[in-house]
Write a structure and sequence with these properties.
Radius of gyration: 17 Å
Largest sheet: 4 strands, antiparallel
Number of strands: 6
CATH class: Alpha Beta
Number of helices: 2
Oligomer: single chain
Strand content: 25-35%
Helix content: 10-25%
CATH architecture: 2-Layer Sandwich
Distance between the termini: 9 Å
Strand order of the largest sheet: 2-5-1-6
Length: about 110
C-alpha cells in the first residue's frame, strides 16, 4: 500500500478527484494549505498593504491506495493536471506498512 500526498493548485481539485475516483481511491482527505516552492511565491497587495508573505494557496490531498493504483494515479495526474508552469504541485509517495478498519478489524488492502 502507498500513501499519496498530493499538493496542487486549488482550481485543479475537481480534476484530481475525478482521477482518484476512476482509480478506485475509496477515501481522501483534503486540506487547504498555504506555501511556496521553487518560484518562492509572490506578494499580494490590497489597498497598498502587502500581505500573504509570499505564500500561495494550495490544496493537499491525501489518500492510501494499493501499489498498482498509486502508479496509475501518478501517471494520470502528470498527464491531466500538468499545466507546464511553476506551481503545478508535487506528489509525495510513502510506503504504508498496514491499515486497520476499526469497525471490522480488517487489515491491509481489505481495510481500504
Amino acid at each position: 500500500m502507498k500513501k499519496l500526498e498530493i499538493i496542487i493548485q486549488p482550481e485543479r481539485l475537481d480534476d484530481l478527484k475525478s482521477i482518484l475516483n476512476s482509480c478506485g481511491a475509496h477515501g481522501i482527505m483534503i486540506t487547504n494549505i498555504m506555501g511556496y516552492g521553487t518560484q518562492r511565491g509572490h506578494k499580494q497587495t490590497y489597498n497598498g498593504v502587502d500581505f500573504g508573505g509570499n505564500l500561495l494557496p494550495k490544496v493537499k490531498v491525501e489518500t492510501i491506495v494499493s501499489d498498482e493504483a498509486a502508479e496509475q494515479i501518478v501517471d494520470l495526474a502528470i498527464d491531466q493536471i500538468n499545466t507546464g508552469s511553476y506551481g503545478d504541485g508535487k506528489i509525495f509517495i510513502y510506503d504504508v506498512y498496514d491499515a486497520v478498519r476499526i469497525r471490522t478489524g480488517e487489515r491491509g488492502d481489505d481495510a481500504l
